[in-house]
């Protein structure tokens, strides 16, 4: 894939391809590690040192410093899938939050092939039976030539078990839900397959937001939004705007919230 010379907001963007081909899928280069500090950190180091980094996939069986959002720890025991993929940033940098939206749609679809009731809790958690099965986190990073890339980091509880864990009331795994183990590679392949469609999703904003809305478990529900532990808003989640911000019907009006520092909790 060649880069175009078009630039906007200092972003040298790649042309949007008309359709992902099987070549794209085969061209994903996987870098396996038994243990990584964090696959997102490994991917970040790679982007910073290498211009030709797109479609490199970092996979680990455990992480010593698995990260969630806002400095949260992602528990990364053996049995989980920890992966990060580097994609070219094909949209304007000011819209890069849409990568998180689109990655959510791709990952939810992939996980639904194992657990059909999997839904997205805005912005980036995949829930089954109201418990977290998977988390994802996107980071925007520049390569040495100044070109932006998106790193999509995904942690899936595949064969992990939380029966004896402090997370037992809030976390689940494919194995805990199905009652039998799943091949971690199969889960990884299903996710990568869906992620190859991400550039197409990003290119059609209406379809993307519709797909995200359909995959969401919060629309129509009463929620509260927290920032630094304080309640910022209460209301009913009514949908998402064209940047993937959540729309909350409060007593006064409909407000939109960026996921930046905000955490959403279902009421009741
Ligand atoms: P937000 O709703 O703002 O995203 P969050 O609490 O879901 O907040 P994340 O950064 O998305 O935060 O995820 C990290 C949190 O998820 C941890 O603080 C912990 O509560 C929980 N967690 C950590 N590891 C796992 C895991 N393997 N499976 C399920 N949940 C986990």
Beta-strand fraction estimate: 25-35%
Could you describe the largest sheet, including whether it forms a barrel? 7 strands, mixed
**Would you list the SSEs in sequence order as H and E?**
EEHEHEEHEEEEHHHHEEEEE
What Rg is obtained from the alpha carbons, in whole angstroms? 18 Å
Number of strands: 14
Q: Taking all residues together, what is the mean pLDDT?
A: 88
Task: List each distinct ligand once.
Answer: adenosine-5'-triphosphate
Number of helices: 7
**What is the SS-derived class?**
alpha+beta
Low-confidence stretches at least 5 residues in length (pLDDT < 50)?
Answer: 1-26
Helicity, as a percent range: 10-25%
What distance lies between the first and last C-alpha atoms, to the nearest angstrom?
A: 49 Å
State the strand order across the main sheet: 3-4-5-9-8-7-6
Basic shape: globular
How would you describe this structure to a colleague?
- With 268 residues, this protein is an alpha+beta fold.
- The protein has 7 helices and 14 strands.
- The strands form 3 sheets. A 7-stranded mixed β-sheet has the order 3-4-5-9-8-7-6, sandwiched between helices. It has a 5-stranded antiparallel β-sheet with strand order 13-12-11-10-14. The protein has a two-stranded antiparallel sheet with strand order 1-2.
- A hairpin with a 5-residue loop joins β11 and β12.
- α3 (98-112) crosses α7.
- It starts with 6 loop residues before the first strand and ends with a strand.
- The chain binds adenosine-5'-triphosphate.
- Residues 68-69, 72-75, 124-125, 132, 135, 155, 157, 167, 171, 263-264 line the site of adenosine-5'-triphosphate (ATP).
């Amino acid at each position: 894939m060649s880069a175009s010379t078009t630039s906007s907001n200092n972003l040298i963007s790649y042309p949007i391809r008309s359709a992902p081909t099987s070549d794209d899928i085969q061209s994903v280069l996987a870098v396996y590690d038994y243990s990584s500090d964090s696959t997102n950190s490994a991917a970040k180091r790679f982007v910073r040192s290498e211009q030709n980094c797109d479609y490199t996939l970092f996979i680990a069986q455990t992480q010593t410093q698995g990260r969630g959002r806002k400095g949260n720890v992602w528990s990364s025991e053996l049995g989980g899938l920890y992966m990060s993929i580097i994609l070219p940033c094909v949209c304007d940098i000011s819209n890069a939050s849409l990568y998180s939206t689109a990655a959510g749609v791709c990952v939810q679809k992939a996980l639904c092939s194992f657990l059909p009731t999997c839904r997205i809790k805005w912005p980036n958690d995949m829930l089954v039976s109201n418990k977290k099965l998977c988390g994802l986190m996107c980071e925007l990073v520049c390569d040495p030539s100044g070109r932006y890339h998106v790193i999509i980091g995904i942690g899936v509880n595949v064969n992990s078990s939380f029966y004896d864990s402090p997370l037992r009331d809030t976390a689940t795994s494919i194995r805990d839900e199905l009652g039998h183990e799943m091949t971690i590679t199969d889960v990884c392949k299903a996710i990568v397959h869906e992620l190859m469609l991400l550039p197409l999703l990003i290119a059609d904003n209406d379809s993307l937001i519709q797909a995200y809305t359909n995959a969401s478990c919060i629309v129509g529900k009463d929620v509260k939004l927290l920032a630094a532990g304080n309640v910022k808003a209460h209301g009913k989640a009514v949908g998402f705007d064209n940047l993937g911000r959540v729309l909350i019907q409060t007593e006064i009006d409909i407000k939109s919230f960026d996921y930046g520092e905000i955490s959403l909790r279902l009421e009741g």
